[in-house]
Specification:
alpha/beta; Rossmann fold; 7-stranded parallel β-sheet; two-stranded parallel sheet; 9 helices; 53% helix; binds NADP nicotinamide-adenine-dinucleotide phosphate
Length: 249
């Protein structure tokens, strides 16, 4: 059984790769920092191999699929991603476009290409790492929240299509709140509430994926937030999101 994990050089992706090996999978680790990937490969031994890929380049995403197609991959984890903080008129456009390419375009391309392979074989799993941000509008992190809305929406639609065709292929979106990783230093924010550790997020994500859940929201507090979102108008939740995000700066 072989799995690809993007964003495996750090945080949630690295712990998903570790957890997959514990569960008997071989893993193909994908990211840009090859020194980090090699370190993890050393830890995981013969169960891991590394592929360097800058997912913000669509051609590299397509090439990744082409190269790995002969590997008989059964599980894809789209975990690579990053955020950026600041009011929308002030944040850097090029950085945001790179974020959209990584968080949205790469997820779209890899999901489509591997999904087609999985549907042909009528087996396979896709885990898209979204965020609780994927259910809200996020002032002061507007683009990041929007990218994660794309991921939750896309995953939900594919989930329903697979269900209607009675497919054995499974797709899940992991939607965590704060997780203790390098995300904050990259996004230049600090947590405004206590984070969970990435091992917990990884293990719950894989449990949910294997059970065929659409959304996995690790931590009861964050589950409550998702529930509250259903009860309140968008203007109200966005108002609270602004205050929440402001504390992170
Ligand atoms: N931490 C949180 O609080 C939190 C909460 C909800 C959702 N998430 C989501 O969880 C996912 C993983 O983030 P994390 O928290 O684990 O942060 P992290 O520790 O910073 O890890 C981010 C990973 O993404 C990879 N990556 C970024 N840009 C890339 C690119 N252009 N090409 C290839 N790989 C790229 C990084 O690898 P290289 O730099 O080596 O390329 C790294 O492995 C993200 O999608 C994030 O949005 C995080």
């Amino acid at each position: 059984m072989k799995a690809i994990v993007t964003g495996a050089s750090s945080g949630i992706g690295r712990d998903i790769a570790r957890e997959l090996v514990v569960r008997g999978w071989d893993v193909i680790l994908v990211a840009r920092r090859t020194d980090r990937l090699m370190e993890l490969k050393k830890e995981l031994g013969k169960h891991a191999k590394c592929v360097r890929c800058d997912l913000s380049h669509i051609e590299e995403c397509k090439k990744l699929h082409e190269v790995l197609q002969k590997e008989d991959v059964e599980l894809l984890v789209n975990c690579a991603g990053f955020g950026l903080c600041g009011s929308f008129d002030e944040t850097d456009l090029d950085k945001e476009l790179q974020m959209i390419d990584t968080n949205v375009v790469a997820v779209h391309v890899l999901t489509k290409l591997f999904l087609k392979d999985f549907i042909d074989k009528d087996k396979g799993y896709i885990l898209n790492v979204a965020s609780i941000a994927g259910f809200f509008s996020g002032p002061l992190m507007a683009t990041y929240y929007a990218t994660k809305n794309y991921v939750t929406s896309l995953t939900g639609a594919i989930y329903e299509e697979l269900k209607r065709r009675k497919s054995n292929v499974k797709i899940t979106a992991l939607c965590p709140g704060p997780v203790d990783t390098e995300f904050n230093s990259v996004a230049n924010v600090k947590f405004s509430s206590a984070p969970i550790d990435s091992r917990t997020a990884a293990s719950q994500a894989l449990d949910g994926l294997m059970k065929g859940k659409l959304f996995v929201v690790p931590s009861p507090k964050i589950k409550c937030l998702k529930f509250v979102k259903r009860l309140l108008p968008d203007t109200v939740t966005t108002h609270f999101c602004y205050s929440f995000q402001k504390k992170k700066k």
